[in-house]
Amino acid sequence: MSEGTQTARAARKQAIRRKAQRRHSHFYERCSHWSFSRGDSAEPIHWHRERWVLAGTALLITVLSGFIIPAWASAMRPAPVPAAHALLPLALPKAPASAMQAPTVEDWRIVQVQPGQTLSDIFQSQGLSLTDLQRVIDAAGSAKSAFHNIRPHQEFDFLLGSDGSLKGLRFDKDQSSRAILRFDGAQPTLALQPREMEQREHVAHGSISSSLFAAGAKAGMSPAMVGKLADLFKYDIDFVQDLRVGDSFTVVYDDIYRDGSYFAEGDIVAAEFVNQGTRYTAYRFKKADGNYGWFSEDGRPIQKSFLRIPVDFTRISSQFSAGRMHPILGKMRAHKGVDYAAPSGTPIHAAGDGVVKYRGWMRGYGNFVVIQHNGSISTAYGHMSRFANERVGQRVSQGQVIGYVGMTGLATGPHLHYEFRVNNVQRDPQSVTLPKPEPLPGAQLARFKSQVVQPQLARLKALDANIKLARAGSSTRNDD
């Protein structure tokens, strides 16, 4: 490069500097005294505002570098490579084809018997014919007895095909087994399935304040169980006339559960009833013939030889008396029986086992029946609206229906005229001493007292003591 060119460039740089100095003369004036020279003649550094700004800026840059550089280094680090895993194939056994298929859920239709329905009505309600019903009866075998007397609330389960044809039927053969009929194969099949039956014991105590059924409900008993309690003691207690406020009862009874669910009320195991201060007891006992019966503490059957009242009545319209004004004849006459007023058509029951001695029209008594029970005792029933199916000479059992309440003969309203005769002499049915039934034979009586009476009596006494203790505690708290 020539010397002239270099001289021109130097002159140009000199001009640029002078121009910059003129433009920024104020800066050069402020900063002209700054010096980093260590010479002795140099003045010491004085920390003015400009020096503080420069120092702060340097410090800030240093701090930021401490954060930015490590973060940048981490960002630049390569991502970790996951460890490699080797996959080895394993031979597994093949699942059977049946296991791969979802189980088939059968759609059984549950039909509950309604009052008045017949088996043919139920089949027709499912679109089935009488021919289908006959097929079921023919295939039921030992279970066909379940079809003879179907009851309300009994269940029949139907399995129908897509075309509405009968493929299966389930029903209760008895309380403890279910019958399953299938028609989806070449031949009908019958299977009996046992059902788990369980008896659960309960203890109830009640005190009469208004009625027996109200006291039983308060004690947790079902109406059916209260009815069984009344049936046990109906031979000794007239629950219409004899019941008093304060009478009490204690009952040990079973409920029946099937497959874990409540099924029905069971039987009374032991019971005690205190009526007007008199105590009556009943204990369930299996006799030598295998049948169960209820007996008092002395081993005599609770079921007496005669019913005290042979009809469910609403009131006593006339008592037994030596003389009363006849409501129709209008003159005094002896009334040698008891009149039990009841709605027309109410069933009349035989008071005891015996033979029908008379059945027909009797002057003043209308339709009239006489039953001879033994050599000395007979009973008579008058004013019936109609007779049952018994004939003269036919044997009847206690409780059997022999006719229905009416007002035939000389009567002003529907009622039963009932007579109790000893050697053909009328006696008051309400006060006559009824013959006691014979107690259990010696060996059975001993077993009854040791196995039934003693343990159950101890339970009843313990329960009675607890009840009295609870009442005493309650009375003490009330006094406080």
Account of the 3D structure:
The protein is of the alpha+beta class and 480 residues long. Among the domains are: 108-194, Nuclear Transport Factor 2, Chain: A, CATH 3.10.450.350; 197-295, Nuclear Transport Factor 2, Chain: A (Roll), CATH 3.10.450; 315-427, Glucose Permease (Domain IIA), CATH 2.70.70.10. Helices cover 28% and strands 31% of the residues. The protein has nine helices and 22 strands. It has helices spanning 3-23, 25-31, 49-76, 97-100, 119-125, 130-140, 212-218, 223-233, 442-479, and strands at 108-112, 155-160, 166-174, 177-182, 189-194, 197-207, 248-258, 261-275, 278-286, 292-295, 315-318, 321-325, 332-335, 338-341, 347-349, 354-362, 366-372, 377-387, 395-396, 401-405, 415-422, 425-427. The strands form four sheets. Strands 11, 14, 15, 16, 17, 18, 19, 20, 21 and 22 form a ten-stranded antiparallel β-sheet that branches. Helix 7 (212-218) packs across helix 8.
